[in-house]
Design goal:
Elements (H helix, E strand, L loop, with lengths): L3 H5 L11 E3 L5 E3 L1 E2 L10 H10 L12 H20 L7 E6 L2 H11 L8 E5 L8 H4 L3 E5 L9 H10 L4 E7 L11 H10 L3 E5 L22 E5 L10 E6 H5 L11 E4 L4 E3 L13 H17 L1 H19 L5 E3 L12 E6 L4 H12 L1 E2 L1 E3 L4 H7 L4 H9 L8 E5 L6 H16 L1 H12 L3
Parallel strand pairs: 3-15, 5-6, 5-7, 7-8, 8-9
Antiparallel strand pairs: 1-2, 4-10, 9-10, 11-12, 13-14, 14-17, 16-17
């Protein structure tokens, strides 16, 4: 527990940390946010940097004015700062700014079509929809299996790479699951993929904010070819996503989103595209979002990603140890196996719906969690061991309750005192299920 005292001091870095919210009984309490896997609150330093930059904000790249030149310089400097944070090679990899991870994966799926016609893309059974759906309408997609505990099967990956005999061009895998928090051995997966002539995309949306990430040199067999992540999950709002990949890929062909800012010369009969990354960033770029991202990265580097990972892991282990002692709690990731995880804990209370439990936590204790399938429905269906026939029935009948679990997800600013508050209310709910079900069926019309 060596990081406890040290990390409690970092609560002061977060905007809105002492916000008071109403409870169902009319009292007010300090909000507790355990929904960081969806979106983190902003660093105060990020908001301050935005305010400091605002007087200099202007349209970039095509303006001769002094403010435009300042904004353009900062925007381009951001690429090296952000790339350095994850070990990208500035000589061989482009850093492209987009709205979020979802847009980044969609862009990549569009840009690879001409390079890899008739390709097989290997996604996995634990992916967010954003690393599954964009591949479906353009490629043959297959899914790397998971074991009974929800972890990725490297044996199945090897078998599929062998089966397709060189047709697999990309393995698209999450760095850390947004449902279970399980971290995948991305460098080992990369080496396996490269051994069969495939590349690797790592969805870093849940990994980059919580652990050190190094894409490694392209000369290393375990290097990451493509990395995507979102700033809003790393304490920087304003809507910026990042796509990092080989320069040679984006030098070829037309951008998937042509328009202003993507061209060097145009007639009605001819288009000369700008060089990447500019031709991949159509329209007026989100300079404010990029400034926010840089400011957040500065804070994260000052704290140290290894320290963040260690503290959040301790917080997660502490929670799991105590959750296991509460009756009627069903956990969906395993505590004793020492498999690397980011700070995510999925659970249910037996005999209660996930949406009811989440609502009770909010109304009774001011604790924000997420519930449902977290845009990873096939994975949650597997974790819940729901037969395909039942999934089909739920899909066809809108009156049936939707499948799901409750998700706790921590940030670097969360404390043991907040966790203890969660554990107290969960024990209260789990030991008095009938009372709370009756109460909330009446209040919120749960069926």
């Amino acid at each position: 527990m060596q990081y406890i005292k040290h990390f409690n001091s970092y609560r002061g870095l977060i905007a809105g940390i002492d916000t008071k919210i109403p409870l169902i009984n009319g009292a007010y309490t300090t909000a507790i946010n355990f929904d960081n896997a969806a979106t983190t609150p902003p660093f105060l330093a990020v908001l301050e940097e935005i305010m400091n930059f605002s007087p200099w904000y202007a349209s970039i790249h095509r303006g001769a004015g002094y403010k435009s030149q300042c904004s353009s310089t900062l925007y381009e400097e951001a690429r090296s700062i952000i790339g350095n944070f994850v070990g990208a090679d500035p000589n061989k990899q482009e850093v492209i700014f987009l709205k979020n991870t979802t847009e980044a994966i969609n862009k990549l799926s569009n840009r690879l079509v001409n390079l890899y016609p008739d390709a097989v893309i290997l996604s996995t059974c634990m992916e967010h929809h954003s690393n599954d759906l964009p591949w479906r309408n353009k490629y043959t997609v297959d899914y790397i299996n998971i074991d009974k505990e929800g972890k990725l099967s490297l044996r199945d990956l090897e078998e599929k790479l062998q089966h397709y005999q060189g047709r697999v061009k990309l393995v698209a895998v999450t760095g850390a699951s947004n449902v279970t928090g399980y971290m995948n051995p991305v460098h080992k997966i990369a080496a396996m993929a490269h051994g069969y002539g495939a590349e690797i995309l790592v969805d870093g949306a849940q990994l980059v904010p919580h652990a050190s990430v190094d894409m490694l040199s392209p000369k290393n067999p375990g290097h990451i070819d493509y990395l995507v992540f979102s700033s809003h999950k790393m304490y920087a709002p304003f809507g910026t996503g990042v796509l990092i990949g080989p320069k040679k890929v984006f030098q070829q062909g037309a951008p998937d989103c042509p328009g202003g800012g993507t061209v060097e010369f145009v007639t009605h009969d001819y288009v000369k595209w700008l060089s990447p990354p500019l031709k991949e960033e159509a329209g007026t770029p989100n300079v404010m979002g990029v400034v926010a991202t840089m400011a957040a990265i500065k804070v994260l580097k000052e704290i140290g990603m290894n320290h963040i990972e260690a503290y959040e892991r301790q917080l997660t282990d502490y929670t799991l140890t105590h959750l296991e002692r509460i009756p009627n709690i069903q956990l969906f990731n395993y505590h004793q196996d020492n498999h690397p995880k980011v700070s995510i804990i999925p659970f249910n209370i037996e005999g209660m719906s996930h949406d009811m439990v989440a609502s009770i936590l909010s109304h009774e204790a001011g604790i924000a969690v997420r519930n449902g399938c977290f845009c990873a429905q096939p994975y949650v269906q597997r974790l819940l061991k729901v037969p395909k026939e039942e999934v089909q029935r739920i899909m066809e009948d809108d009156t049936l309750p939707h499948l799901g679990v409750v998700r706790i997800s921590y940030g670097l600013y969360n404390t043991y005192q907040e966790v203890d508050a969660l554990l107290r209310i969960l024990r209260e709910i789990a030991e008095n299920r009938s009372y709370y079900k009756e109460k909330y069926n009446k209040i919120l019309d749960f069926g």
